[in-house]
Amino acid sequence: MKIIDAHSHIDYITHLHQPDVVGTVCCATDESQWAKLLDLMRQDKNIYGAFGIHPWFIDSVFDDFEGRLFKLLQSDSFYMIGEIGLDKYKPDMDKQLDVFIKQFDLAVKLRRTVFLHCVGAWDKILHVLKQYKLSDLPIIVAHGFNEKENILQNLLRYDNIYFSVNKIDVYGGKCRIDQIPNNKILVETDGKSDVNMKNLVNQISQLKNESDIDKIIFYNTQKVISNGQIK
Ligand SMILES: [Zn+2]
Questions:
Q1: Share of the chain above pLDDT 70, in %
Q2: Sheet strands (E) in the chain
């Protein structure tokens, strides 16, 4: 089995720990991590970097961070954007929105995949998406996806949104993992060493009764990490 972890962080490079994992998407969470991530990527070509500022760390933002992010992204057409988003349970939604939109704008301008953190703010995210032409939207990965079915159905209207999961247990009216279409599903650890990627893929395979799901997920992930270059 060949798996790429679609969402981890710089302190857990999944393919160094799990034999079936051949690559890791590493998301920076604030600007201080950008240089560290670049360093790691220079040493290991199986690390796929996403650069950005996480909604939990908007306090770390200083002047013209988006200018520096733009420059960094321009230096390599494979660099992606993440982890960015909105979180209803964290302070200062206005600033979160401002930081998110500045970064999302860059993703649209440069056509880069976005790794999205969204907690309780899908209405706001959808409102932002509607400001753009559908054909201008980049690939968006809804990470740690675990939402109600109506949210899934709303998001499935967007052909460029993918759903990355790190567990298959659902409760409290959440959608079942097998409701996520095969061509939209990804797997991730979110940097947690207790997520066994091979077990996760096997569980999804059983749930979906699809023996080739590992190959399908691998292909989906390649599409995402190529910023949609692979069709
Ligand atoms: Zn994360």
A1: 100
A2: 3-8, 21-27, 47-51, 80-87, 114-119, 140-142, 161-165, 185-187
- Whether 231 shows a pLDDT value over 80: the answer reads no
The fold of 3-225 is: TIM Barrel (3.20.20)
Query: How remote is the CA of residue 24 from the centroid of ligand 1, in Å?
Result: 12
Residue type, 81: I
Residue 171 neighbours by CB under 8 Å, 6+ apart: none
Cα(54) to ligand 1 centroid in Å equals: 8
Residue holding tokens 């790429």? 4
Span from the CA of 188 to the centroid of ligand 1 (angstroms): 9
Extents of the domains making up the chain: 3-225
Neighbouring C-beta atoms of residue 10, cutoff 10 Å: 19
Q: What is the mean pLDDT of residues 117-136?
A: 96
DSSP 159-202: TTEEEEES-----TTBPPGGGS-GGGEEE--TT-TT--HHHHHH
- 82, 88, 110: which is closest to 24 by C-alpha? 82
Ligand 1 centroid to Cα of residue 144, in Å, is 8
116 CA distance to ligand 1 middle (Å): 9
pLDDT at 171 over 80: no
